[in-house]
Amino acid sequence: VQLLESGGGLVQPGGSLRLSCAASGFTFSSYAMNWVRQAPGKGLEWVSGIIDSGTPTYYADSVKGRFTISRDNSKNTLYLQMTSLRAEDTAIYYCAKQMGLSSFDYWGQGTLVTVSS
Amino acid sequence: QSALTQPPSASGSPGQSVTIACTGTSSDVGGYNSVSWYQQHPGKAPKLMIYEVTKRPSGVPDRFSGSKSGNTASLTVSGLQAEDEADYYCNSYAGSNNYVVFGGGTKLTVL
């Protein structure tokens, strides 16, 4: 199993960014997937989840209405569209494969998003 | 969506046992047998150590064990080794509205 995130970088407050997570080594279309972030020096925060078929989707209150999770099962890729970015969104963003209701058994290496002017 | 409560730090000497608690509510920890524990070393991605309260993924030493009583789950590390020094996080399913919630993390120090 391999999860490879990309798309992170420096963005100004109010800006947008799209993260991608390329999956391999398992049947991507059979598993729910999630985004989890970690601000510098802080703990893990669950951000968003999507079931195997793509609907429904779930969001933390802190990103609801600003972030959109999606997936393309034909490309084995998970996405996170982030808009109206704030300084407090600065974090390493991990994609994680879900097992069962809420266990994340495989994680990517993370991609750093920095929101700053 | 309130975070689960973990002690910020825990410690033990090599060979000893240490237990880390993770306290939630009846809407998350207490309501489902879906508590997981993760180990994170500095600069690394988290690693799943325990799932569904008590189960260990393949490759995780049996020194790691999990349990739950009411709204509190616990991770016990027996026979502490230097490489167990890391941050540990719990998470739980929190229903279809809140989905998943993490604990704040516990830094485990091996003295």
Compact overview of the structure:
The complex is a heterodimer of chains A (117) and B (111). Chain A contains no helices and eleven strands. Chain A has 117 residues and is mainly beta.
Descriptive account of the structure:
The complex is a heterodimer of chains A (117) and B (111). With 117 residues, chain A is mostly beta strands. In chain A, a hairpin with a 4-residue loop joins strand 7 and strand 8. Chain A has no helices and eleven strands. Chain B is built from one helix and nine strands. With 111 residues, chain B is mainly β. In chain B, strand 3 and strand 4 form a beta hairpin. Chain B is globular. Chain B has one helix at 95-98; strands at 9-12, 18-23, 35-40, 47-50, 64-69, 72-77, 86-93, 100-102, 106-110. The model of chain B has no long low-confidence stretch (mean pLDDT 96). Classes of the chains: A mainly beta (117), B mainly beta (111). The interface between A and B is medium-sized, with 22 and 28 residues.
Features:
heterodimer, A: 117 residues, mainly beta, seven-stranded mixed β-sheet, B: 111 residues, six-stranded mixed β-sheet, 9 strands, 4% helix
Helical content class of chain B: under 10%
Helix and strand string of chain B, N-terminal first? EEEEEEEHEE
Could you spell the SSE succession of chain A in H and E letters? Answer: EEEEEEEEEEE
What Rg of chain A do the Cα atoms give? 13 Å
Number of helices of chain B: 1
Can you summarize the main beta sheet of chain A?
A: 7 strands, mixed
Low-confidence stretches of chain A: none
How does the SSE layout of this entry go?
The complex is a heterodimer of chains A (117) and B (111).
Chain A: E1 2-6, E2 9-11, E3 17-24, E4 33-38, E5 44-50, E6 57-59, E7 67-72, E8 77-82, E9 91-99, E10 103-107, E11 111-115
Parallel strand pairs in A: 2-11
Antiparallel strand pairs in A: 1-3, 3-8, 4-5, 4-9, 5-6, 7-8, 9-10, 9-11
Chain B: E1 9-12, E2 18-23, E3 35-40, E4 47-50, E5 64-69, E6 72-77, E7 86-93, H1 95-98, E8 100-102, E9 106-110
Parallel strand pairs in B: 1-9
Antiparallel strand pairs in B: 2-6, 3-4, 3-7, 5-6, 7-8, 7-9
